[in-house]
Specification:
Blueprint (H helix, E strand, L loop, with lengths): L2 H11 L3 E6 L4 E7 L10 E4 L2 H15 L8 E6 L6 H9 L3 E5 L1 H12 L6 H13 L4 E2 L5 H34 L3 H4 L5 H7 L5 H5 L3 H11 L6 H12 L8 H37 L4 H5 L6 H11 L8 H8 L3 E2 L2 E2 L2 E2 L3 E2 L5 H14 L4 H13 L3 H7 L1 H14 L7 H27 L1
Parallel strand pairs: 1-4, 4-5
Antiparallel strand pairs: 1-2, 2-3, 5-6, 7-10, 8-9
Helix pairs in contact: 4-5, 6-12, 6-14, 12-14, 14-16, 15-19, 17-18, 17-20
Length: 440
């Protein structure tokens, strides 16, 4: 954690009464500590209901604290799953400062209380309050409605994509049992494959298929990428299929199952397209969309998801803040003369991490500032994935600079010249490597 940020947080919390809350599904556990960390009274519970928020909580607090003014009392809440969101929103609307404490901090705070890792609700509430008193928290922020809407759509998009991937795998597993040669003749993840599977399923179905009647439909669905040759290849593969033999009843059940997966895929695709249209429309109204999409390789979808996950990009005045929130910052292992490998922490927003990786993967082919870093690392040690991740810092640094200066990306002549020279060296490097493999 940044020492200046920690110092600022500790200065803010100094002299304030802290109410630590461990949220749960039915009953929240709370504890009150003073400015030096001494508990006031005993821990107490209040229901996760309207009466629990408005009556039980403040009835208990008034019995222990005489002054419940918003400038002397702060609430610290552990941000576990989504149990904390309603409570934080309620307390914020009441005018109180709400501090969000990560479960990672409370996990390491537990053994400090009574020298063991036992986990109870009262102990967790005290651990949350102690972490807040030490400055290990983030301030709860209320974002504008359009930013919250984009964030929700981004989460939904990620879940729909996961469901679509599951559906594709279910279709593949079913086809590989009944007609495994199908995937060799035609890519299963195409509209043409899904069209044919909606009509034919077993090898016998494909053997009895009328090629001349299907050719116009296949050419229309595939936009002329597949024609009579593809259908003949499927018929030839069906003649020597090793798929399991099915009875009439089994074929009917397999057909119903496959139709369910195909229908679910179509529905998911429609929902994703509808969602993306709304997400991009919201993102286009932000001042960041045109700046980010000015970088060649970053699509409207990727830029929209990047903005949605970060919500307010003006808050991130340094690119390392974005790395930290996405889990792309490096963890070091150093002691004395020993220095271990540097690896990313993976502690952060996994959706944002995937979006940033996708952005770096595309911009490394077009943007000089990113490609230069990638090629230098490739010539030093060719590791595609690690070198793409290493190029992320250059990309984020560029994006933060463009947002600060409020202008779109423009190619710099000095970077282009450097890239041209580096491309020549990289080409020679690949030729040498290729010749070395041939000689070996």
């Amino acid at each position: 954690m940044n020492s200046k940020s920690l110092e600022t947080k500790r200065h803010f919390i100094n002299g304030k009464t802290i109410i630590g809350i461990d949220p749960a599904k039915k009953n929240h556990q709370a504890v009150i500590i003073d400015s030096v960390g001494v508990p006031i009274g005993s821990t107490f519970k209040f229901n996760n209901t309207f009466n629990g928020f408005h009556q039980e909580l403040f009835h208990k607090l008034n019995s222990y604290i005489s002054d419940l003014s918003t400038d002397r009392v702060v609430f610290a809440v552990e941000i576990s799953i989504n149990l904390w969101q309603k409570l934080c929103c309620f307390l914020c609307n009441k005018g109180f400062t709400v501090l969000m404490v990560s479960p990672l901090f409370t996990h390491h705070e537990r053994p400090k209380i009574n020298n063991n890792f036992s986990r109870t609700d009262p102990k967790d509430a005290l651990a949350v309050a102690n972490c807040a008193r030490q400055g290990y928290f983030n301030f709860y922020r209320r974002y504008p409605s359009n930013q919250n809407a984009m964030h929700r759509l981004s989460i939904t998009y990620d879940k729909l994509k996961c469901h679509m991937t599951q559906t594709k795998q279910r279709i593949r597993s079913q086809v590989e049992l009944i007609f495994p040669e199908f995937t060799r003749a035609l890519d299963l993840d195409t509209d043409t494959a899904r069209y044919l599977l909606s009509k034919y399923i077993t090898p016998n179905d494909f053997l009895n298929m009328n090629v001349f009647l299907e050719v116009p439909e296949v050419m229309k669905v595939s936009q002329r990428q597949h024609s009579q040759a593809t259908l003949k290849a499927l018929k030839d593969a069906a003649k020597q299929s090793i798929g399991i033999n099915l009875s009439n009843e089994e074929i009917i059940s397999e057909r119903i199952t496959l139709n369910c997966w195909l229908g679910q895929y179509v529905l998911l695709k429609e929902q994703i397209n509808y969602l993306l249209d709304e997400l991009i429309a919201l993102a286009e109204n932000t001042p960041y969309f045109s700046i980010i999409t000015s970088l060649k390789g970053i699509s409207d979808i990727t830029a929209s998801r990047f903005i949605a996950e970060l919500r307010d990009l003006s808050y991130f005045d340094h690119y390392k803040k974005i790395e930290a929130i996405s889990g792309l910052n490096l963890k070091l292992s150093q002691s004395g003369q020993y220095t271990g490998y540097r690896r990313i922490t993976h502690i952060g927003n996994h959706r944002l991490r995937a979006v940033i990786y996708s952005m770096a993967e595309e911009t490394k082919n077009h943007i000089p500032e990113v490609r230069i870093r990638y090629l230098k690392r490739q010539m030093k040690q060719p590791r595609y994935r690690k070198n793409v991740i290493a190029s992320v810092s250059n990309l984020l640094k560029l994006i933060v600079a463009l947002i600060k200066e409020e202008h779109k990306y423009q190619y710099k002549e000095d970077k282009q010249k450097e890239l041209i020279e580096l491309e020549k060296r990289y080409k020679e490097f690949k030729e040498k490597k290729k010749n070395y493999k041939k000689s070996a």
